[in-house]
Protein 1
Amino acid sequence: MHPNMICEELHSALRTIAAKYAQDQICVVMDEEVAGKGKSIVESRWNVLCMPVSEEDKSLETVQRIWDFLFAHGITRRGLLICIGGGVLTDIGGFAAATYKRGVDYLNVPTTLLAMIDASSGGKTGINYGGLKNSIGCFDPPVETLICPDWLKSLPANQWLSGFGEMLKTGLVSESALWYQLLQYDLEKMDSEALKPLIAQCVAAKKRIVEADPKEEGLRKVLNFGHTFGHALEEISIQKSDVSSPPLLHGYAVVYGMIAELYLSVVKLRCPKEPLQQLTQVMLHYYGKPQCKCSDREALVALMQQDKKNERTAQINCTLIQDIGLPLINQVITPEEAHEALEYLFSL
Ligand code: GLY
């Protein structure tokens, strides 16, 4: 295969959907890192904006840049914004589309494993604001999410691991058969063909949950397993990052968050110890221990108390599990319990 060619099915699915729109009403926003492959699926008549995309770019300025681009090309409410990139890009692009002229259609083409599994489907869009991740945003589903695992062939190992972290979460909250298949997957090989059926199962599991509860009023909160601790770890690692200590990738933070939340699941809900032991092995083998720069317990608990998932101010709210595939939402934990779980995580 030519290194700049990606799966034919993606190209043809994209053309089929795009044919429903006036071609001069189609805009593409694309992560410049995937522009080589990305341009091979973009029609010459479409308007393309390539831009750098990192967590720091998940800001109002970037959204303004996309709004300006849409205005500059005279896009009306009948237009389409195609977002090609990882989860940061699809979150920002989706938010720009959801708010432009009160909403224009958008379509996601996720290029990272994390975006394929989680960010690009389900309609959560947004930006970071006030030092908090995803604190401004809205629910607005894309017209379609086109997943092509061929993108993964050029994905760095840490991005594979980050996406796989969300797959592990999906296994733990949905069904033990998927969890055990994920444990058997040989991450060392990073074989995208072998991963395809597992991606399909994770995407289907998320779809079932989101269809039942699109606005996260109840059931969808199961997808937040690992994220109460994970978001705090990720946030602190961003605040304390420097050249020698880059921020934690989202899926790594979720794996560490799941260890803390599995510990609480064992202690508070009598969840069997096996999933905690199994995930600990996966963590030590592939992800390594959490960086020490994210281990400030007081700051982590303070961040968890501000989490947007909390129903009451300063009350920490988690999803825990009673067993694999048996999640329990709205579990309130005390600051002391949060400290205990962090002690456990940092003792490994
Ligand atoms: N990332 C979790 C969700 O989409 O609900």
Protein 2
Amino acid sequence: MNLLKVADLTKDDIVALVERAARLKGLHKKGVPQSSLLGRVLGLIFEKSSTRTRVSFETAMYQLGGNAIFISGRDSQVGRGEPIRDTARVMARYVDALVVRTFGHDIVEEYALYSDVPVINGLTDLHHPCQVLSDILTVIERRGTVEGLKVAWVGDGNNMANSWIEAAAVLGFDLKLACPKGYLPDAAFLANACVGTKAKIEVVGSVEEAAEGADVLNTDVWASMGQESESENRILAFENFQINSAVLSLAKKDAMVMHCLPAHRGEEITEDVLEGPNSVVWDQAENRLHMQKAILETLLT
Ligand code: CP
Ligand code: NVA
């Protein structure tokens, strides 16, 4: 089994992952050592930068008794053009699972096709499933459930937005997305994600409409990795798509402000809101560790 996108999972799968992650978090806080992945090795192939995803996966392996090997695109033969299908087959002879962070989603799909061991998407241009699964854990820790919650997405219709869309569709919560024209989630992707769901997933006309009465306010950078050359144009297009105190005041009083990080203060989110009492961003970052453990155990044992 692979984990390439949230829609690879059922509602029961996600509930089980959240429960296991919460249990592992509790055991870790109590200092109870774990050894479920003793002798197992995780390979990480990253063609984009990372702090959280890399360190949380590596630490998760060590804390479960296993090991991890990090390979940056630059230093490996991947960076010199060795075909993905060759790399995937070779790596699968060494390691027990692979985390891949790359550009095109087709690249991670090709790894999965040719690898005999599970492939986990550590972020592509289209999806960031492990982040959103741990974000669901963060929400459930505070609210007990995601059912009946109103979630808002403000900003770019990017990989994070896509994974939130799939999470809403699978778990059945309402999601309102406010994105500038030209930066909406792909219409065909959105329509396809919504097939058969009872969730109300809609693109709305303004940030205010998305934020009104929201339980969760979510945003992400205006220019993602690989879009650096578009930064100047994006700063103009996204000017009014910011989570600030005025936007926060429209949401529920105890609304959670979420950001996968890294954040650009003064762009998609203001300093006061990021550092304020509604922000849960540091818990989100911590929960990456606990959710990665649950994902690894599920795929490897
Ligand atoms: N949120 C996230 O994936 O962070 P990194 O890019 O640091 O891994
Ligand atoms: N959308 C961002 C997320 C970073 C974790 C990016 O792809 O760069």
